[in-house]
Amino acid sequence: MKMVEGFARAAPWLAMVALxxxxxxGPGYKFGGFPLSLMVPFLMGGLLVAFVAGLASATGFxxxxxxxxxxxxxxxxxxLMAGAVIFYVGSFVKAAQGVPAIxxxxxxxxxxxxxxxxxxxxxxxxxxxxxxxxxxxxxDTGRTVREAQLAHYTDLAPLFLDTEYSFAFTAAIxxxxxxxxxxxxxxxxxxxxxxxESTFWYGFKDDVVIRIQAQSDNTTRVDVxxxxxxxxxxxxANAARIQRFLDALAAQTGG
Length: 255
Description:
The chain has eight helices and six strands. The chain is of the alpha+beta class. It has two domains: 2-97; 104-253, Alpha-D-Glucose-1,6-Bisphosphate, Chain A, domain 4 (2-Layer Sandwich), CATH 3.30.530.50. Strands 1, 2, 3, 4, 5 and 6 form a six-stranded antiparallel beta sheet that branches. Strand 4 and strand 5 (205-214) form a beta hairpin. The radius of gyration is 24 Å and the shape is elongated.
C-alpha cells in the first residue's frame, strides 16, 4: 500500500519532469544552443513521462475515493500538466505525420524564386539555399521533393493581381511588414523581396523570397518561396507562411 501511495504522491513531480522535457527544447535552442538533434528524444521522453504521471494521478484519485488518503488537488494539478504535455507533443506528432517531410516550398516548382540577399545569412545553415526539387523526399516515399509538394499542397499557386507592377511591389512590402517579418532587401529593379521570419518558440529562422513580375496583360504575377534553415520537415510551416503572405497581399491590393 505504501508503494502505491508513494507512486500517487510522485504524480506532480512526474508531471513537472514531463513538462520540462517537452518545453525545454524550444527556449533551449532559441537562447542556449540546445542541440536540435535532441528535440525529438526530449519530446518523446516528455510524452512517456506524462503518461506515467497520468497513471500516477489516476492512482491518486483512486486512493482518495476508496481509501480516503492522498491529495485530490495534487492529483488534479498533475493530471492537467500531464494532459497539456500529451496534447502538445501529440499535436506536433500529428502535424508532422500529416504533411510531407520537406522544408522548401514555393508557388513555382519549375522556376522557383532564388535567394540572393539572405545567402550570407544562411552561411553554415544545415539546409542549402539551392532548390532541391528533384531530390528524393526523405522517408523513401518514391517521390521527389517537388512531387511531394504538388501532391499535398494542391492549393498553393502563384497570385495574379489585376494591378500594375509598382503598386503590387509596394503592397508586397506592406504585407511583409504587416506580418512582422524582417525585411532584408526590396529590389524593385529585379522584382525581388527577401525577408526572414523567426518562429516564436524555437526561434527558427526561415527565409522567404518574393518574386513580382509584370505580365503582358497589365496584371502582375507574384511567386513566393519559403525555406527553413534547419530541419528535415517543416511540419507545414513554410506552406502556411506562403499562404499567409498571399492572403495579406490580396487584402492589401483588393485582389
